[in-house]
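Cont'd.
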Amino acid sequence: MSSLASSRASRMVSATWRPFGARLDRSAGAVFILPAVVVILGFSVFPLLASLYVSLSRLKFVAGGVELKFVGFDNYAKLLFGIDRPHLLGVAGPLTAIGIAVLVAIYGLFAYLLFRYARGPNRTIGGLIGRVITTAIAGALVWLTVNTILTSGRPGTLVVTLVYVAVDVSVQYLLGLGLALLVVQHLPGRRFFRVVFLLPMMITPVGVAYLFRMLVDTSKGPLYPLYAHFGLTDVSWVINPWGARLAVMVGDVWQWTPFIFIVLLAAIETLPHELTEAAVVDGATRWQVFWRITFPQILPATTTVVLIRIIEGFKIVDLPNVLTNGGPGTATESLTLHAYTIWRALDIGGSAAVAYILLIVVTFVGVSYVNLFRRRATAAV
Amino acid sequence: MAIMGRRHGSVSVNTVSPPAMVLSYIALLAWTFVVLFPLYWLAITALKTPLEVNDGPFYIPWRDFKPTLDSWHYIFFDLREDTFRPYFNTVVVGLTSTAITVLLGSMAAYGLVRMRYQVGAGAIGSFVVGVAIAVVVVVAGGPWPLGLVAGFGVFVLLLQTVARRLRRGVGNDDIAFWMISQRMLPPVATIIPIYIFFQQLQLLDTWGALIISYTAAHLPIVVWLMRDYFQSVPVELEESAAIDGASPYRVFRSIVLPLAVPGLVATFLFVLVFAWNEYLIALFLTSANAQTLPLTVAAQNATRGPQWWYMSVLILIMIGPVIAMAIALERYIARGLLVGAVKG
């Protein structure tokens, strides 16, 4: 009550300001959101349109500057059907038994999920169409992945990027969640661990890349005794495609696990803990407390942090660039590095086309993810 | 695992029994080793001579090799200005852009959580037409300010007339997704337009260009993260404050922000880290004056191969302040802030 009275008093003092204040209060919604919208909009529209135009043209160096020549979808055609196809999409080999089994299992799962949705009580026409499109595109990506990885073929930059994102984000999430749960316990020294676990994220990505290049060096790196023990000193990471990819993924996990760790830690710490206490008093096990109480409450933060990591993960570039230079061949190249290498070769249009293909893939993954998981997760709370 | 806490009566679930404690410590120490070993390697590399780095792994200073401060001397005295200027730039750009980003981002996030927005299809259409007109003017050879004014004029005109008829459109979730989708295009594709953008504003090689870029680039992340933290603030508190006559701004500043401190601190920390470490945008937008430290690190990869020893020193002095800040802020990412507020 006292605050009511005091606010009345302050209103009388500022009587002349009242019309303006009232208007300001009424338009609070706009005041809150507009600055951010204007900044993002002002900064995004021009680059988005300009790089779209560049992706549809060929850039030539002429006397005194550059010249953009509009070429339509040539850059995309070159990547998807022309000479750059093996680079982007990879080379498919003949399907093996394992490949067929994996395909059948995944397509069966897709079909089952679609069927369940179509028969379920919540279906809508829009939802059904969206899911059919999602399934079709996801099916195509799975087809591409299986045909290039589980065969004698080799994956292109698109599939390599998908593998990076899938592996990195899952491992980072599991590690980050586990660590967050460990340090919310009342253990002596937990503040030390909290700060230490953040350290990898603080190093500039280029620095992390060089650091890992030191670590994976088989002759003068710190892991030399390990390599010597397995007789690997003459082997370079640059020779084995999966070894090189593994090194890239380890580096990415090392660097970005802290991100998921700190977001989930803050989410858990923000939770009101009456619920957990009540559950403990009632005799719930730790597993039950986590699975039934903590986890559902941090689900929104979980889906957010995973979405951000997926989006950022698709843009991985420094690690493969510095660690392996994309090699052996193009085995560790991500889509962004692909765009970067042809950018360095001054094929600016082709580079923008790769970037737009990346944008389309990320948008597809992001939209599907938000529609399938996040809406549900946030609705549940 | 055993049931915890029961024995202690009213104590929370986070009190740990001895066996669980041992397991926890094993896991924590294992990850600590994984985190610290590369950093230890960095630290001793900074104390080695080039010869010692190239001759094979030496682990322990004084036993395996004689530590030297040669690299530190080079960075601080030989490079001097070329270290300190980027350092100062990094501090200014990092802190300023982070402060602005967290402020604007939290405001937008709060709006998206507690208010309802409805952007009509007409408004979006007007905007697209406005942009199209600006593009046509510029492509036809007109100066860009003219295009901007023409586009903006048409946008406002349409907004005031046609847009009012078409009100059905996108809501809060769509706005949020639009924001995060701005991070989907890799910087390598947008960097040339961004370069031209700042060239036209004559802001190349200034703090301003970097601060604006980083603010725009990191806003979506702040919005998304803070949305979740604000969501967990009990809405009853805000409602009772509003009934007491507090304005929305007052509610936001005095109630919501203090209660979301753990999230704010976490968000502040890694937006700072992102801005502190950003490489590609800085590479294109700066040359001598506004250069930041990540460029200095990358520049140590000279024609003779990476100069590991200098790089290590630079990385170490680069993460120093961020670690200090993390230690200072870590205590705020702690439980208990909400409890008093709800009970009181």
